[in-house]
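Tutorial handout. Part one gives the primary structure; part two gives the three-dimensional structure as C-alpha cells.
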Amino acid sequence: MIFERKKYLDELIAGRGNGLVKIITGVRRCGKSFLLFDIWHKWLLEHGVTDNHIIEIQLDDLPLS
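Part two.
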C-alpha cells in the first residue's frame, strides 16, 4: 500500500524554483526518503525534468573518514 502524501508533495511543488534548499524532517520511518526518492522523483520526471538533472544523495551511505 502506498500513501500519496499529497499535502507534502503540494508543499514541495509550491516551493519549487524559489532558490531555497528544502529540508524534510520527521520521526524515524515516517516516509521522508520515500517522499523524496520515489514520489518527488516521479513527479519531477512527469513534469519535464530529465533524470540526469536529478541528484540524489543518501548521506547514510557515505563512508566515514
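Part three, for discussion. The chain has one domain: 6-61. Residues 6-61 form one domain.
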